[in-house]
């Protein structure tokens, strides 16, 4: 864990159907973040392509990347040039028939520090990820870097307190959620507000209950449903930097592309755990029920 403040940045942008152009947009954002002093830069979920999971279409598998591959090589060179750590989520082709929603972590020297493969895979209206992605392995393991141990999770993972807690128990110094989440344009303004408030609230709770800062990087823009079966998704942005007590340190107020920067003091993790000893007081002897899918009432 870094004993000095860490400058972090989130690159929030819209995606087009041009994968090369999306990569260049992200690289421009990374360079902008570096100019502002960032040491750690986080990109949004599946940053180099539109959110193709609105439909189940075999042709989309051709967009998957190997790791190492073109994107990791390009970003690795950039990480070494700018001397910063990059978290880059992509569509990974692991083997024939095995694909993952993966976030790779590139160290300041350009090497691959590690990766996280998304564990919770949704299958909801507009989010048909189970068709594309195999659940990750080996599980919730932070990626060690020169800036600390990064507890990288992905989008749907952010709704599960178990994922955040497992990362904390494995020694994560901060939690990172690259995300692709938005609203159905047909929903009422009231419903849209409820969804966005719930999304922010649950991530603030992860920070509080684990005494860890949280970084959330979402995309923006409307992306159509190629099947025509829905109104598409309006991604709401709202990327934010959250402190260890759930305080929102910085956020993108609107739904526009932006590079959000902030400073994290990771030394507060231990100070707060001394004052709010949630991990000490866990009743690990009484949590066997968590290993069951559901406990039917008698």
Commentary on this structure:
- This protein is of the alpha+beta class and 298 residues long.
- It has helices spanning 19-35, 70-82, 161-169, 189-210, 268-275; strands spanning 6-12, 40-43, 85-95, 98-106, 112-117, 123-124, 127-128, 143-145, 148-152, 174-178, 182-183, 214-217, 220-223, 233-236, 240-242, 248-251, 258-264.
- The chain has a single domain, classed as Nitrilase/N-carbamoyl-D-aminoacid amidohydrolase (4-Layer Sandwich).
- The chain has a six-stranded mixed sheet. Strands 8-9-10-12-15-16 form a six-stranded mixed sheet, covered by helices on one side.
- Helix 1 (19-35) packs parallel to helix 2 (70-82).
- The longest helix has 22 residues, at 189-210.
- The chain starts with 5 loop residues before the first strand and ends in a 23-residue tail after the last helix.
């Amino acid at each position: 864990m870094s004993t000095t403040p860490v400058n972090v940045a989130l690159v929030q942008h819209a995606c087009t159907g041009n994968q090369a152009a999306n990569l260049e947009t992200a690289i421009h954002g990374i360079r902008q973040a570096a100019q502002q002093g960032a040491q750690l830069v986080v990109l949004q979920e599946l940053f180099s392509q539109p959110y193709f999971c609105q439909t189940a279409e075999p042709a989309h598998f051709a967009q998957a990347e190997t790791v190492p591959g073109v994107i990791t090589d390009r970003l690795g060179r950039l990480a070494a040039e700018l001397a910063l750590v990059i978290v880059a989520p992509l569509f990974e082709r692991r083997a024939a028939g095995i694909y993952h929603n993966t976030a790779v972590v590139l160290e300041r020297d350009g090497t691959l520090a590690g990766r996280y493969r998304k564990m919770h895979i949704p299958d909801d209206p507009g989010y048909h990820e189970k068709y594309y992605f195999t659940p990750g392995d080996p599980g919730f393991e932070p990626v060690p870097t020169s800036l600390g141990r990064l507890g990288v999770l992905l989008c749907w993972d952010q709704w599960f307190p178990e994922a955040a807690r497992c990362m904390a128990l494995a020694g994560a110094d901060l939690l990172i959620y690259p995300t692709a989440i938005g609203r159905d344009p047909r929903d009422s303004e009231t419903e849209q507000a409820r969804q966005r408030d719930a999304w922010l609230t649950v991530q603030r709770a992860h920070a509080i209950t684990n005494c860890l800062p949280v970084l959330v990087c979402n995309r923006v823009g409307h992306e159509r449903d190629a099947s025509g079966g829905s109104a598409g998704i309006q991604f709401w942005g709202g990327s934010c930097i959250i402190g260890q007590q759930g305080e929102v340190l910085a956020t993108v107020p609107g739904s526009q592309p932006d590079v959000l920067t902030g400073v994290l003091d990771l030394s507060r993790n231990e100070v707060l755990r001394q004052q709010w000893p949630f991990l000490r007081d866990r009743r690990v002897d009484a949590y066997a029920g968590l290993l069951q899918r559901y406990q039917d009432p008698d």
